[in-house]
Write a structure and sequence with these properties.
The chain is built from twelve helices and 16 strands. The protein is an alpha+beta fold. The chain binds glyoxylic acid and manganese (II) ion (MN) (2 copies).
Length: 414
């Protein structure tokens, strides 16, 4: 029997692990709120380590608090094959975004271990730090640091909603996990493959099992701050006000108009807004809002992004505006080596496939800067994600993990 037929994914175990992980930060309606670098995040990571210890995986963390589980290969000099995803969630997130890719990696190495398979190359499962960027913007800070795109301390001064700095939260996490051996950032990597739910409707609507992901569209995040002046809501005449709220509303409307796309490919989102002093009877002196802009074409993403400062400026009547770009992930094409390995694995295991690009960003976008990278998608029910209703059936998840395991076997034996 060859290695492809020896090892079997245990769908029940994988589902049980996913459901147990979802208890860390469980919210109503099957949702999860597990923010990066919190006690909940740390508890979930300890649980993962406990499961990984059952197969003797070596555990380590790096300076960005990315968590690594490693199984050795037969060739101690060979560069590893990496898989994994993230364990932090959106504030109103589901059970599968990120968690699936980490658990799928653990399930794949566990199934291989139980079948007595030792690949030539080591295999490492990584849980990246702060992929979502919902507590500390931007996302993907762990993978950006690991691949050398940004220094680890780039975001030290970024604050969460409670005023806690990223740098302090990272130091706290590293302190709580000081018993876990440290490893350096980066290092030689043979290939990276990440399993993830699709987060869109295509696979389900076309009745297909597996997305062979060919690349990821580009994303840019901006923070806009509108400064006005606070005043009494009952006494200050409108003509004398510098109302940051009204100028922010004008700016958001003008941006939405400027970002209109008849082809409905450009994605423009204002998902976060903070108002100071946030009181019904005070005129707002400051409004801060986020912009998330995405497009698969780098030139279009650059050109549309370049419009943002002037659109905001023209919308100001009485206030001042500041704009900061805090995340730039240009469109990424995945590597033919990994795309072919995923395609081969899906076909070998009898699954139907669709070649597709990802609308969501992922840590694979940054891993691809230093290693051949690719991704495997499984269907998302009704395409729902970043929502407690996110759902993929145990069988669909197991199919994705079967494809992941066969992809890992192929890459780790080459
Ligand atoms: C990742 O969560 C994204 O926003 O694409
Ligand atoms: Mn994700
Ligand atoms: Mn997400």
């Amino acid at each position: 029997m060859d290695q492809v037929t020896q090892a079997a994914i245990n769908s029940d175990r994988q589902w049980r692990w996913l459901m147990e992980l979802a208890e860390f930060g469980a919210i109503p309606d099957n949702g999860v709120n597990r923010q990066a670098l919190t006690a909940l995040d740390r508890a979930a990571r300890r649980q993962l380590i406990e499961w990984a210890s059952e197969i003797g995986a070596t555990v380590s963390i790096d300076e960005a608090a990315n968590l690594w589980l490693r199984v050795e290969g037969s060739d101690p000099t060979a560069a590893p094959v990496l898989t994994g995803s993230h364990m932090d969630s959106q504030p109103k997130g589901g059970r599968f975004d990120g968690a699936y890719g980490v658990i799928a990696g653990l399930e794949a190495i566990t199934a291989m271990h139980q079948a007595g398979i030792v690949t030539k190359r080591p295999i490492e499962v990584v849980a990246w730090t702060n992929e979502e960027g919902s507590r500390f913007a931007p996302g993907c800070t762990g993978s950006m640091s690991w691949c050398g795109f940004k220094p680890v301390h780039e975001w030290d001064d970024v604050k969460d909603a409670d005023g806690i700095f990223y740098g302090a939260a990272l130091a706290t996490q590293l302190g709580f996990e000081s018993d876990i051996p440290r490893r350096p950032l980066g290092g030689p990597v043979h290939a990276y493959v990440e399993a993830h739910i699709e987060q869109g409707p295509l696979l389900e609507s076309e009745g297909l099992d597996i997305g062979v992901v060919t690349g990821i569209q580009g994303s840019r995040w901006f923070t806009v701050t509108i400064e006005g002046e606070s005043a009494h809501a009952g006494t200050a005449p409108l003509s004398l006000r510098r109302d940051a709220m009204l100028d922010a509303v004008r700016a958001i409307q003008a941006l939405s108009d400027a970002m209109a796309d008849p082809d409905d490919v450009l994605r423009f989102t204002v998902g976060r807004i903070a108002v100071s002093p946030n009181s019904s009877n005070s005129v707002a002196d400051r409004v801060t809002f986020s912009i998330d802009l995405r497009h698969p074409n780098a030139d279009i993403l650059t050109a549309r992004g370049a419009l943002i400062p002037s659109v905001i400026q023209s919308a100001m009547t009485v206030c001042d505006a500041r704009l900061v770009e805090n995340f730039t992930a240009m469109p990424t094409d995945f590597h033919p080596l990994v795309i072919a390995a995923v395609e081969h694995a899906a076909k070998a295991t009898g699954h139907s496939i669709k070649h597709m690009a990802s609308g969501a960003f992922h840590d694979a976008q940054f891993a691809s800067r230093v290693a051949p990278a690719g991704m495997i998608f499984v269907p998302s029910h009704k395409g729902i994600s970043h929502n407690p209703a996110e759902y993929t059936s145990p069988a669909q998840l197991a199919a994705g993990t079967q494809v992941l395991m066969h992809t890992l076997l192929r890459l780790a034996n080459s």
